[in-house]
Amino acid sequence: MDFRTFLKEHILLFDGAFGTMLQQRAGGPVGTVPELWNAERPEDVAAIHRAYAEAGADVITANTFGANEFKAGSAETAAQLIRAGVRLAKTAAPGKFIALDIGPTGRLLEPMGSLSFDDAYAAFARQAKAGEEAGADLILIETMADLQELRAAVLAASEQTALPVLCSMTFEENGRTFAGCDPVCYALTASPLADAIGVNCSLGPDKLLPIVQALLSYTDKPVLVQANAGLPDEHMHYSVGPEEFAATYRQFLDAGVRIVGGCCGTTPEHIRRLRALIGRRKPRALRHRPVSAVCSGTKAVFFDGVRVIGERINPTGKKAMKQALREGDYAFVQGQAIEQAEAGADILDVNAGLPEIDEKAALVRLVREVQAVCDLPLQIDCGKPDAIEAALRHCCGKAIVNSVNGEEGTLRAILPIVKKYGAAVVGLTTDEHGIPHSAKERIRIAEKIIAACAEYGIPQEDIFIDCLTLTVSAEQGQAEETLRAMRALKRRYRVKTVLGVSNISFGLPERRIVNTAFLTAALAAGLDAPILNPNIPENMQAVHAWRVLSGEDKNCAAYTARYGGAKAESAPAGGTAGHEKPADARAELFRCIRKGLPQAAAACAALLEREAPLDVVNGSLIPALNEVGDDYEKGVLFLPQLIAAAESAKLCFDEVKKKLPGGGAERGKIVLATVKGDIHDIGKNIARTVLENYGYRVIDLGKNVPPEEVAAACEREDVLLCGLSALMTTTVPAMEETIRLLRARCPRCRVMVGGAVLNADYAKKIGADWYCKDANADVKIARYLFEGGEEVPTL
Amino acid sequence: MQVDRAEFLRYLGWRGQETDELLLANLDDAAKRCLDAASPRMVARRFALGKNLELAGTGFILEGQDIRAHLAGCSEVYLFAATLGIAAERELAKLSARGAYEALLFDTACSCAIESYCDDICDDLQKSCGKRLLPRFSCGYGDFPLEAQRDICRLLRTDTAIGLCCDESCLLTPRKSVTAVVGITDEAPSPTAKRTCGSCAACRHTGCAFRRKDQ
Questions:
Q1: Engineered SS bond to A345: which of A282, A367, A534, B29, CB 3.0-4.6 Å?
Q2: Which residues from chain A sit within 8 angstroms of residue B163, using beta carbons?
Q3: Tell me: the pLDDT tens digits for B45-100?
Q4: A678 interfacial to chain B (CB closer than 8 Å)
Q5: Which of A29, A178, A730 shows the shortest C-beta gap to B169?
């Protein structure tokens, strides 16, 4: 019988532990690659398979858990071990389903690690294909802790083979995986991609019930449980015997689990007891009901109240964001993400729609860089199907796609992608006839979108209708039409609503007044997810107030905690700065910078009242920084004091920039990167801070940056100085390669290098112009190169 | 596990400079934030040691003159791996995007914390072992190659056991992690055994800014 059919009609029984059984046979450790036994001791492997088959397992798992190119040494060896393992299992257990077993790569994926999603996918694809060719009946992806790695594996297995794909993660006692994923995020993200999802390893069966319950609530797929026989003691003995093990499994079956088996420490006897427990039970109907929720890899957001979508990561009308996207300076974007999260955004919109850049590549990069520093779910803001698909593919979690509209072509191009990745989708109430002018027309288009989604199996809970905000000063009746349409849709359907609000006030004075009123009216009309700038206090104040009025903020607790005792945000900064003489103001600024105090900004603003911006820079800021730098060199100050001073100087430069809108304070442009293979970026970040705070424009390419990317950025920006950092002896070769490429492509560009294992000799050997022993050395080089400062001899 | 103020300052390169209350308060904040974010985990295993420094039954040989000298006379070792976990790593990424000052303090606090955690692990191993243990010895000390880190991670299955990975450059991820070899001597435990690791004494980088003054 076909596996998928069998799964529909039966409670499925997997086998038990393999690794611990192998160790028993070896009488000790089995080396770094236990899968080598498939070639070296096939009889031992076959004997374990036979024992599980005889115990009554429906599925025999091949000994291929760690047979990947990273652990086995090469893709070829991995494929050989997989072929041998699957064939052994087939021979040892005829008539049983054979599962290709795929475990984690042993590498941490980007953004926290250095393995790219695409490289992980490619490796998993090779494993899956080797398993299918060898005759596996299904693929089991198990013991995963990182949701992004699981996604890469499941996508590879399901796209590159025709086999059913089951996946399983391992949880800790705190209800999360090592990588911080909880069962809700897991279920929302993995269910659309796999044939079954579940949990294995880590805990004994008695601890797994809450996790299993959560999975059952949020997945529409069969749920699998393969628990450990308890936790091991120091001699690697597992405590839960077969009888006790089977007894706790009864509650899983009662709750609706449809696939069971054992993990570490279980034996054929454990499996025999499970066989008896299953008896003649038949699978229970799924209890899943769709909910409106999205998530990242670690945080789920439910739409059971107002949820704010932050709109700032979008180049439209934002000069600094345009520049950041053009230059590849994603540190700026990351700062925007954190700022919005701290201001109260629940979800972040990401948009890379800039005509002169590759939108698809930039959108993928945006997703990665924002997810590296922020755990909020994302809204992919793009109309191009290929870019949407690429972004969803690389986005960890369940995202919202913004957007489709009522045009047939758009719906047919984008909805299949939304469905494949299990995303939610924004439906704009426009179509080929343009923007409708009545509530009725908006509702008609929304209904068309809802019907099209239904055809693809996208539930109403995953649809966010946008009833469109038009400019009230141009078409005054339209505000009410928007609200009317929203009220009607919320009454008739289970859809949610989104709305960008700031458009309403275009052309009017004091726009914030109108925006806030409209936002409140829209929330009252049933708006679930306003798209707005959370950094504007009035916007979030309206949201907080609405949460009180709607009852979402129980007992007004959050509101009171936030505003109880708080003064209005516009209170003027205190102090007597305005009454001081210029010399005193300069001394105060000097003191604040030297001490690294945030009050430096106010002191600088006070001085700017009396002196020209460039005089403040050259007469106060730079001399203050120089003194701090000199004292650092002499050992009067140490590193944290240097950095604190640099950061307070940055606040001052921000004040200066307000007075110099043309950017006249920029002193030179520098590209910085931590080289390929290296993820230790603290040194590079310190260099960035110090250089920026001297007024240099730093294009920070981030960590683990391939040589080509560094060279391309230096070439495109035509920079004269590039700084590279590497921490370990193992990553210095990548630095050397980067320098070689820079020499070939950007002959004008000089290179300074730094990092723990470097010294001047080594730096010279790999072809650098300068070696930087600390962050202050960078500044001296920049001053020499850009401003004719004291010469810093090259190596 | 703790973040010791003196160690914290030493890692930051402090050489007796004048500090003020604000800086010390910032250090305390960073230490607290680090201890809150950290979820330390470890895995250890005992292996018999062959003449050629092979861990019995594994095919893995400890390579390098320095570790050979260090383990002279040991017929067994512990391998262990420890990590502060991914949450501290995420916090560091977030702080780095906000500014260098907080990130520097947090990063350094984490370095102190993982070393302190390793001290605790070694203390625990000493208590349960019954024989005197040598100070821990990590990859990258002397000529013990970083590449050995990959095999240690595989033998201990650190990826599934504690969420610790070793990447293509043989660097550990999450970054605030340690792997180490602890020699088991044939002698009875000594009550006055030194608690510190042997890294500075064994290290050839005598000009290092972080070298302990007493070694």
A1: A534
A2: 145, 177-179
A3: 999 999 899 998 888 999 999 999 999 989 999 999 999 999 999 999 999 988 89
A4: yes
A5: A730
Partner-chain contact A114 B168, CB within 8 Å: yes
Percent above pLDDT 90 for chain A: 77
Return the H-helix or E-strand segment holding B44: strand B41-48
Contact yes or no for A71 and B154 at CB 8 A: yes
- In the block, tokens 């930087």 appear at A772
A103 in contact with chain B, both atoms CB, cutoff 8 A: yes
Confidence of residue A663 (pLDDT cuts 50, 70, 90): low
CATH 3.40.109.40 fits B5-202, yes or no: yes
Identity of the residue in B23, B56, B153 whose CB atom sits nearest the CB atom of A640: B23
User: Which amino acid would we find at residue A378?
Assistant: L
The answer to whether the beta carbons of residues B84 and B110 sit under 8 Å apart is: yes
Contact B96 A681 (CB under 8 A): yes
Q: Which residue carries 């799924």 as its tokens?
A: A286
Radius of gyration of chain B (CA): 18
**Which residues of chain A from 731 to 750 reach within 8 Å of chain B, CB to CB?**
731
Judged against a pLDDT cut of 60, whether residue B145 lies above it is answered with: yes
User: A680 — contact with chain B (CB < 8 Å)?
Assistant: yes
- Cα A367 to chain center, whole Å? 7
Q: Between chain A and chain B, how many beta carbons pairs sit less than 8 Å apart?
A: 171
pLDDT digits 0-9 by tens, A452-474:
999 999 999 999 999 999 999 99
CB atoms within 10 A of CB A269: 17
Phi-psi region of A571 (alpha: psi -120 to 50; beta: other; left: phi over 0): beta
Would you tell me how many other CB atoms lie within 10 Å of the CB of residue A69?
Answer: 19
**What tokens were used for A304?**
């059971």
Spell out the domains of chain A, with CATH numbers in brackets.
3-278 (3.20.20.330), 302-550 (3.20.20.20), 577-659 (1.10.1240.10), 669-787 (3.40.50.280)
Cβ-Cβ contacts under 8 Å for A561 (sequence gap 6 or more): none
Domain ranges of chain B: 5-202
With an 8 Å Cβ cutoff, is A338 touching chain B?
A: yes
Nearest residue on chain B to A688, judged by CA atoms? B100
